[in-house]
Amino acid sequence: MTTESLKEALKQVKYPGFSRDIVSFGLVRSVAFDAGTAKVSVAITTADPKVPTQLKTEIEQCLRAQPGVTEVIVELAVTAAKPAQPAGQANQAGGTAPAGIKRSVAIASGKGGVGKSTFAVNLACALAQVLEAKGRPGRVGLMDCDIYGPSVPLMMGISGRPEINGESLVPLERHGVKVMSMGFLVDENTPVVWRGPMVMKTIQQFVQNVQWGELDVLLVDLPPGTGDAQLSLVQTLPLDGAVIVTTPQLAATNVARKGGIMFQKVNVPLLGVAENMSWFEDAAGNRQALFGEGGGATTADALGTSLLGQVPLFPEIRAGGDCGLPIVVNTPQSKPALVFRGIAETLLAKLKV
After folding, report:
1. pLDDT of 332-345, one tens digit each?
2. 0.70 cut: is pTM over it?
3. Domains of the chain (ranges plus CATH)?
């Protein structure tokens, strides 16, 4: 038995509530094996008192099952996250919020292809419009944490490299929204081929080493699923809540529900569910439910939260994203834009901004 084989065995241990193992999450600090004794050091951040006990038990069971192991020593370093509070009253996840950021909200989905990034971009622009009308322009941020497929720069119509001020990056800005994305840091045709720890490090840098300035709301566009990016975020940035994006059909809502449960497990309150591509309007003005009906409301009920709104499927939404002019900016009085601003106003009220 070697330390490498022990570390490989630890990949069987999943972080509670996630499909990823503790090794790929970068939580295992060291592994040693000597004269039948396996010793492992693990560091986690959580507000759930049951998580450390569960992890220690599973690690011990895993290692004791390995040939040649007669004794197991588990050193578990736990950083206590703040317990959950009602949305808008306190931060509740691990880490420390950068100075000047009042509220941080994750935009998430369980399933890919539901238009989450398009939703995040238009919501950010809608929040900027609502806050500007209140005399607070330039106080919205959008952090693109979809490391492998960053699409926010295209949809926001931003290109180029962020400036460096001291040891910090200066976010680019357009449509009244400050933006940071991996898309600014790699060439357009260069794929990001990284393992989990590199993803975690990048998200930490986006939180801690970007000059966001004074923000009323920072939206965080997460990739689909419940993996590295999600855990990294809740361990790094105190989130005031999460919005789950889904389309109406069962194939999407089933996975969206799991995504919502993941946030609940790590003590991040759900601010609501947004149903995207809810209906299509034909030339005669009739609504067609192309992806079914009621999925967003059903998901919200199952998660014990509210339905924030139903965004219709308009070709102009796609066109706006392709040309860097979100429909909220390009056609502010259109039906989708009015829905996005309604959701923005609801969120600001929930967050007490």
Report:
1. 999 999 999 999 99
2. yes
3. 3-80 (3.30.300.130), 101-351 (3.40.50.300)
